[in-house]
Amino acid sequence: MSTPNEEQIEYWDATRGALWVAEQETLDRLIGPAGQLALAQASVRAGERVLDVGCGCGTTSLELGRRVGPGGRVLGIDVSRPMLARASERAREAGLAQVEFRRADAQTAELEPDFDVLFSRMGVMFFADPPAAFANLHRAMRPGARLAFVCWRALADNPWMYLPLQAISSIVPPLPPPDPHAPGPLALADAARTQQILESSGWRDVRCEAESVELEIPSERGVEQAVEFMMNLGPTGRALESASETERARAAEAMADALRPFQSSSGLHMQGGVWIVSALA
What is the pTM of this model? Predict the structure, then answer.
């Protein structure tokens, strides 16, 4: 698959795909509340046809499939073969014949223009050219179709991201300041820019609503489990990719100290800031 998103495809297909499959249940617990807000915004009805972008291991696609019922259709697209294999397996296990999956880059994929809803849970922030991607997705919608997705707000609104990064900042060499518009978790954190991108891509009545959600970080075995999870995934995981074993050990201790205040008898809970974005085709 040769596309403008080659680097992201390599990352999700080869570098991180298998890890995300292994952590599927944990990740669903983490971002599930944010996904539920987007599902409520989408208001999917029986018989509708839904395109789920960046569907990953298929959790939202399966839920959308239950909502559209046997008379509807859900197509989940992603670039990660390991995650799509798991998603297809789960759809078969659930007996949801109305849900199918396809390996495709949303920015360039040729999609049939008959969808009623474009949905995404944290899957639309990784485009090399967001206007081109959202224009391509717009072409796959029927007139009046609805868009609903959830994405992260700024780093400052997400202590579950920035506190671990702060904790390791004196241990590993600091990463160069990221391009705020580069593909990545925070690429759509600027609501004004997101609105402009969507409007320039043919979408109308664009709304970006700020929401806060309580995120459950895995910690059944204590705060060390949460540290292990964050060291493998997300911004902290990327910051530690080239760290030595000694640096990783020190980072783990520092992160544990930073996260321990959020640990309670019911688990480790932190706040996450998200945008619920909606529009019409």
Answer: 0.91
